[in-house]
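[User]
If only I could read backbone structure tokens as easily as an amino acid sequence. I have put the entry right below:
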Amino acid sequence: MSPLEWRTDQKLSQAAVAKMLGIVGKNPATTWQRWESGKREPPLSVVAKIEILSDGKVTLHSWTQLRRSQIGVAA
């Protein structure tokens, strides 16, 4: 399951997920959006946290697939 699919299934905003993960900075929701869309890669600590929060639905493989699709690499 992709991070976006999980978030929308849970009816969570990007800001809510960012807060749950402890993302800080000028605009944590934008940071999450960039990760969720595959424009940026989240740190492994965030990947581990979201795997726990999602009960294993969003895995390292989910993030890898997302990033590969963003840069145009076949799965």
